[in-house]
Specification:
The complex is a heterodimer of chains A (380) and B (324). With 380 residues, chain A is α+β, with helices and mostly antiparallel strands. Helix content of chain A is 46%, strand content 13%. In chain A, a hairpin with an 8-residue loop joins strand 6 and strand 7. The radius of gyration of chain B is 19 Å and the shape is globular. Classes of the chains: A alpha+beta (380), B alpha+beta (324). At the A-B interface, helix 7, helix 8, helix 9 and helix 11 of A face helix 6, strand 7, helix 7, helix 8 and helix 10 of B.
């Protein structure tokens, strides 16, 4: 076991820390899930990109620094420790980009990744539908082949699309084989939201911000180069990104260790006794355990010993940890907890954790079946 | 950066698992409730497991990271007797004091550790090491007053006696105490994993309503949650072991965290796996209770989860600390 950073890793961290100290906005930006706040966050994203901090783990050619996963973790820690703004580009850079790197053609990568890292193209995820939530494979949005025009015509409705009203592009799953059922016959498409036939309506989430959208597609034409990873391969391609969404890429430990440090600070300022002390200690241990688990996971992955279904462990753990640590903060704040502020906002957002990226009920099935080896229902 | 067991530790862990599968069957764990596990402990001695942290040539000269890997496997097998106390707490401390008793490394001298009036394993022990106020004594003139324990193999007793002060620095006594907590955490991980594995096997075979009960989410989901608790306790135990090797100033904090997480995980897993077995588990004829009762006892021994959380809270909230 060697928990010391190499000189290169340490200097990478130091450089990130110094740049963040000089550049993170003094006053927190308004929520990036509002129209006004989103614009201000885009400015921040462009500042990050100009200094090559927007996608540190990507190749330099696409705006990155070729950082190792250890360096990326260090950057994330420094980012959240510095109180830097939320990443409104996250669904592109953390969810779509890993899929593009794995399944995209060189042409797609060269065309899309630089614009993504520069926050010129802003991507949202089009998976859920009104009738397809946890049961994603029941989706009915369809893609019909248009041989003459050399492409596809997309129709259907997507919903609960995060920041869909502010984004420029959507990546989503469509049923390209009308005869198919379940996870067969699906194709992964990349769709510009300014195409003819697209209608987007934003709506407010639990926290009151316009962070959600419904997206209607009515005979929307996309060319063949909008297919990612092959016609009929959509399920396999999409599942390859769920690991990123549930696991460490979207929810690196730095986010939770920074929040828990702020919780400890709050408790020191306001004073805490009795059972609150124990809950603060537990929240700190849990955040720390998530960090250690991640280090163990990265070590195993870099040595080719990744476990199938492991990202579901991450997801169950961080989502419940996030709620618990905000609940402790609200109890510390007492009568002030109801006031609009970072802790109440954070609490409302934390409640989405066990729901998005596959509900925790689905994750428990995956953990039970793939990691423990319990029998699946209906397949005895 | 490299986080996890080095090859040496994981190899030894796998080897110990193979050996104990044959050398420490549930029948032997059960026998440990009524008698001293004489043969098993001789085997442990022959394997060198009692001298893991004693320097060569008497011992194996290994470190805390290897020790927790081995103790986890011993927990998986449910090894009866004071293994954490003898091999991990007493052996290195007594060796440092130049007072390693004859037979300890061979498995013929079992060591119980007294920190309170009631001493676990006292009725099966040959020696009692007393640890209090940063000092350690080896009791000379003592006799246990046996007390019935929920897990018969814990064979506790009330001990009164006088002892010889060991010639060791207070830091080494402190290290021995931390090892007691961390070794118990590692052993608990093994016990807990054994209960989970037994339960997965049981609910995969047990049929009700025409299907294996493990297909029901009401059974599956609590077991998944139990696994989550276990998975996140493992790296905490490994990190604490490395902190002891490094003499990290935060080692005490890391051990407290490891024991709190492992105790809670093992306690929850005991509850969950017992429930998943239905009435089958609520009997002493079935083996689950052998592991569950040990887990309940060890979850509380060497500091409960609540006590260790309190240690963490004091460090976070009352002490001057710089950022991590």
């Amino acid at each position: 076991m060697d928990l010391t950073e190499s000189p290169a890793e340490a200097s990478f961290r130091a450089e990130a820390r110094e740049w963040l100290a000089q550049n993170v906005p003094q006053n927190p930006l308004p929520s990036g899930d509002t129209r006004e706040g989103f614009e201000q966050h885009l400015q921040w994203e462009r500042t990050l990109h100009a200094a090559r901090w927007s996608v540190v783990s990507w190749p330099a050619a696409y705006g990155g620094r070729d950082a190792s996963v250890w360096e990326w973790l260090a950057f994330e820690e420094e980012y959240y420790r510095a109180g830097a703004p939320q990443r409104v580009t996250q669904n592109g850079i953390f969810l779509l980009a890993p899929t593009l790197f794995a399944f995209g053609t060189p042409e797609q990568q060269d065309r899309l990744l630089p614009r993504m890292s520069a926050a010129q193209d802003l991507w949202c995820q089009g998976w859920s539908e009104p009738g397809a939530g946890s049961d994603l494979a029941s989706l009915t949005s369809r893609a019909v082949r248009d041989e003459q025009a050399g492409g596809w015509r997309l129709s259907g409705q997507k919903t609960w699309t995060t920041r869909g009203a502010f984004c420029t592009h959507l990546f989503g799953l469509f049923r390209s084989d009308g005869e198919s059922t379940r996870h067969h016959g699906l194709t992964y498409f990349l769709v510009p939201l300014n195409a003819d036939g697209v209608t987007v309506r934003g709506f407010a989430r639990l926290d009151g911000d316009e962070g959600f959208a419904e997206v209607w597609l009515d005979d929307v034409f996309v060319a063949d180069d909008a297919v990612l990873g092959g016609v009929g391969e959509g399920w396999r391609v999409a599942m390859a990104t769920t690991g990123s969404e549930r696991g460490l890429t979207l929810r690196s430990p730095g986010r939770f260790t920074a929040t828990v440090d702020r919780l400890v600070q709050l408790a020191r300022e306001r004073g805490a006794d009795g059972s609150l002390r124990a809950r603060i200690a537990q929240a700190w241990m849990d955040a720390e355990a998530y960090r250690l688990f991640t280090l163990q996971q990265v070590t195993a992955t870099t040595n080719g010993r990744e476990r199938q279904g492991e990202s579901s462990l991450n997801k169950l753990f961080w989502s419940e940890l996030d709620i618990r640590l905000h609940e402790v903060a609200l109890d510390l704040l007492g009568p002030e907890a109801e006031l609009d502020g970072p802790w109440s906002k954070g609490f409302l957002f934390s409640l989405s954790g066990p729901i998005y990226a596959g509900t925790n009920e689905v994750q428990r099935n995956i953990v039970g079946e793939r990691l423990l080896g319990l029998p699946r229902a209906g397949r005895t | 950066m490299f986080f996890g067991l080095p090859t040496q530790a994981s190899d030894l862990q796998a080897g110990v698992r193979d050996v104990l599968r044959a050398a420490c069957t549930p029948a032997q764990v059960r026998a440990g409730w009524t008698e001293r596990p004489v043969d098993l402990w001789r085997s442990l001695g022959e394997l060198g497991l009692l001298g893991l942290l004693v320097s060569e040539p008497d011992g194996m000269g290994l470190d805390d990271v290897v020790a927790v890997a081995v103790l986890q496997e011993a927990g998986y097998a449910g090894v009866p007797g004071p293994l954490v106390e003898t091999a991990y707490v007493a052996a290195p401390l007594l060796a440092a004091a130049g007072a390693l008793p004859r037979g300890l490394l061979q498995g013929t001298a079992l060591v119980a550790v007294q920190r309170h009036q009631v001493v676990p394993y006292a009725a099966h022990a040959d020696l009692v090491l007393q640890i209090s106020d940063g000092r350690a004594h080896l009791l000379e003139d003592w006799k246990p007053d046996p007390m019935a324990t929920v897990d018969g193999s814990r064979a506790a007793g009330r001990v009164v006696g006088t002892g010889v002060l060991l010639d060791v620095a207070p830091e080494q006594v402190e290290l021995a105490s931390l090892r007691g907590a961390l070794g118990s955490a590692a052993f608990l991980l093994g016990l807990a994993r054994r209960m989970l594995d037994m339960t997965v096997q049981y609910v995969s075979g047990r049929q009700q309503f025409g299907v294996p009960v493990g297909t029901f989410q009401a059974v599956k989901h609590p077991l998944a949650d139990a696994l989550v608790g276990w998975e996140f306790a493992v790296p905490a135990v490994h990190r604490a072991a490395q902190s002891l090797v490094d003499r990290d100033p935060d080692a005490g904090l890391h051990v407290a965290m490891a024991k709190a997480l492992a105790s809670d995980a093992a306690w929850t897993i005991g509850r969950t796996t017992l429930q998943a077995h239905g009435a089958m588990g609520y009997t002493v004829e079935y083996d689950l209770h052998l592991f569950a009762k040990r887990a309940w006892a060890m979850a509380a021994d060497w500091g409960t989860a609540a006590e260790h959380r309190d240690t963490v809270a004091r460090t976070l909230l009352d002490e001057e600390r710089t950022a991590r």
